[in-house]
Amino acid sequence: MGRSPHPKSRFVLWILVPLAVVFLSSCGVFGGVASGGGVYAPAPGALTISFIDVGQGDSSLIQAGGENYLIDAGNPEEGPNVVDFLRSRRVDELDGMVSTSGDADHAGGLSDVLDAFTVENIYVSGYPKETMTYTNFLRAAQNEKSEGANFEEVHAGMRMEWGGVDVDVINPPPASGEGLFENSNDNSVGVILTYGMARALLAGDTEKDAEEYMAMGPYTGPLTVLKVGHHGSNTSTTPLFLSRFPPRIAVIQCGADNSYGHPTPETLERLGRAGAKVFRNDVHGDVIVTIDKKDVKVEVQHP
Predict the structure, then answer these.
(1) 164, 160, 61, 54: which is closest to 117 by C-alpha?
(2) CATH number at residue 58
(3) Which of 31, 47, 142, 271 is the most buried (most CB within 10 A)?
(4) Strand pairing of 165-171 and 159-162?
């Protein structure tokens, strides 16, 4: 039984300026649309990253330059909620979809999204995941491919361009090198989005080994936004990783009262020491980050 659709409840808007996070409003207008219902258009001339509340799972919508890209879609029962959220953000079709891993809490809702929208590009990790959920997704992806979609396994070193945003794949390692990791989570697709001077890192369920691999690569440096790895587990967000990728904003995608204890106190403590402002789906609902040439704005919708 899925959770109820995303409520159109009150919004809170924050603006990050160089030295502080300033509370602006508890209910108001964002992107030209008032809170309380309706369709919310992404801000023009900006990069918008929506961290969709899918409970204990991952799903992020990237919008820039009139293009739309979805990374994961939570568990199977969350598929309809993700479809509704995409429509609420004026998505008519997807320019790309990324399945970071074959785990149900990432790939489960993607089949519903493929049924609802035309998808031009589908990107996956090369790690084989023999689960019913992932098999269903791959079957739906092959149907989309037969209708003209590009289907591609991605690895570190690849570069794409999404609506004026540079996208560098930083995990998993290419097969031509040392190959994939033994741990399934460490083979999650990881990307860095670069928009002007801003950078956002999203790397699925990557854990210590993959974080070390990324930290030793050529993409290190401060981050505007970090999607915290593996829902805030203490096996991710290591001190080494945070020292190489210090974030201003950290978003944790986890469900309320989840049985895993995510996010762990250790992870929250590490993020606090790194100076990150933390937002969580279990506390804040949908978390929408908008980056333009002057500001970084974070909009949250309480569940």
Answers:
(1) 61
(2) 3.60.15.10
(3) 47
(4) antiparallel
